[in-house]
Amino acid sequence: MKQNQEQKKLLEQATSHYQKSINLAEEYLAKRGLSLEDAERFRLGVVNQPLVGHEAYQNRLAIPYITRAGVVDIRFRAIDYSEPKYLGLPASVTRLYNVEAYFQATDWICLCEGEIDTITLSKLGYPALGIPGVKNIKPHHYKILSDFDRIYVFADGDTAGRDFAKDLARKVAGVIPITIPDGEDVNSLFIKNANGFDWFKQKVAA
Q1: Which of 45, 64, 98, 179 could lock onto 19 through a cystine, CB 3.0 to 4.6 A?
Q2: Distance of CA 181 to CAs 152, 158, 162, 186, Å?
């Protein structure tokens, strides 16, 4: 769905408003190995004082989807481990997260399952795109990925993640599935490994 200027303006206002409360998520971010500086880079926020229509997102982490045209969507993640883990705006469409990485990458890129994992790999210096769950990949995403010679896929360490990587390899040339241990993901491995950067460096032949 094509957005009009008014919708983009409202998304920008919401992002700026929620950014002001990001300090409320400092403890959550620290548990994920992320800093307030990391949050600032990706313009993360907290819905402390919801704007009209955002009451259902109270106290959630606001994760804006930003393109060169501005903020095009916001997803809201529970930081108190309540369910559902994620909520989206009404009528929003599935998008790739951190699309700026597409322009920064050379002949290879990383693909993650989820925004936090994408932020984690970006923190380590890797160009990383994210999909909001393996079931949300779309045909036009294949075309975007096909622009690269190598696509390192960091899907979660579960059956769905492994199946996703295998299926993507059948549809896009250059896919390199990275084996994630059972029950783990990019962020959990980063947190658990004191030399986390070295673990990822071994996996990506940049």
Answers
A1: 45
A2: 16, 8, 10, 10
The pTM of the whole model exceeds 0.90: yes
Contacts of 130 (CB under 8 A, 6+ apart): 96, 97, 98, 111, 112, 113, 114, 115, 117, 118
189: containing domain: 100-203
> Which of 35-39, 113-117, 142-146, 190-194 has the weakest average pLDDT?
190-194
Q: What is the pLDDT of residue 202?
A: 80
Cα dihedral: 28, 34, 36, 37 (round 10): -170
What does the alpha-carbon distance between residue 54 and residue 76 come to, in Å, rounded to a whole number?
10
Let me know if residue 95 belongs to a domain.
Answer: no
